[in-house]
Amino acid sequence: LTGSITYIAVVVSAVSLSGELDLRGKLAATMVIIWCSRLGLFLFTRISKDGEDRRFREIKINPLRFLGAWTLQALWVILTAACAIAIITTREQKEVDVFLIVGALMWVTGFGIEVVADAQKRAFRKDPANQGKFIQSGLWAWSQHPNYFGEIALWTGVLIMAIPILHGGAWLCVISPLFVFLLLTRVSGIPMLDEHAKQKWGDDPDYLSYVERTSKLLVRPPRR
Fold first, then answer.
1. What is the pLDDT of residues 180-199, one digit of tens each?
2. DSSP three-state, residue 31
3. Closest Cα to residue 33, out of 60, 11, 66?
4. Is 60 within 8 Å of 66 (Cβ atoms)?
5. Which of 4, 12, 189, 195 is a good FRET partner for 80, with 20 to 30 A between their CA atoms?
6. Non-local CB neighbours of 20 within 8 Å, separated by 6+ positions
7. Torsion sign (Cα): 115, 89, 24, 162
8. For residue 58, what is the enclosing H or E element?
9. 134: which DSSP letter?
10. How far apart are CA 66 and CA 50, in angstroms?
11. Residue 174: pLDDT above 90?
12. Distance between CA atoms of residues 185 and 36, nearest Å
């Protein structure tokens, strides 16, 4: 919730300081607010019902690791939203172009994948018959982490939208999707979840078969 509120505060501040926005700026601001509101409410609801994220249990009792997590959240907000902030605060007014159209479509696609994947996993966990099992249906049959793929795709879409207004040092904004990719694939996402899955189902032939035939991140048909 703190992260979501921070995103909204940053975007609202950027909008208030930027004067009249063109369509690109309005879309970028709306996209960030929709995304962070949906994700924040989804995670808060899940934690309220299921208890805290297991990855947080050890972090919160260690002051240094807790400080690291808090600092990482600050970096998460500013680096992830970098392209959107660049679009909102630019003084250049750009007409609708191919970058805006392609980027917006990519954002919608990524956002849709993330939302559907989260909903499918939530429904799977609610079914008592799936107690102790791992999900391998729906989008999860096409990717082991489809929600993370959607997350990376939507921020890449925002970068594509920003390309026409990036000049000089503003190109540093490309760090946005790169940061999201590294965070999810190397730090707090896939490595931790995969390690937990191996501990839980590492000797299960069905799980080993699922891992073998299913893409780690990219959403694509499973291998034969």
1. 999 999 988 899 899 989 99
2. helix
3. 11
4. yes
5. 195
6. none
7. negative
8. none
9. -
10. 21
11. yes
12. 20
Three-state DSSP state, 52:
coil
Q: Crossing angle of helices 146-162/98-126, nearest 10°?
A: 160
Identify the three-state secondary structure at position 199: helix
pLDDT for residue 71 = 84
Which range (34-38, 52-56, 177-181, 212-216) has the least confidence?
Answer: 52-56
Cα 188–Cα 221–Cα 80 angle in degrees, nearest 5: 30
SS3 (DSSP) at 131: coil
CA torsion 101→105→107→112, rounded to 10°?
160
Structure tokens at 165: 């207004």
Kindly report the pTM of this predicted structure: 0.91
Average pLDDT, the chain: 93
Look up residue 93 and give its DSSP letter.
Answer: -
Going through 103-217 in order, the beta strands assigned E by DSSP cover none
Sequence-ordered list of residues with C-beta below 8 angstroms from that of 127, at least 6 positions apart, any chain: none
| Cβ(3)–Cβ(73) below 8 Å | yes
| Residue 180: predicted pLDDT | 95
Longest dimension (CA), the chain: 59
Amino acid at site 104: A
Tokens of 197: 């899955």
| Listed residue (188, 166, 169, 137) closest to 3, CA to CA | 188
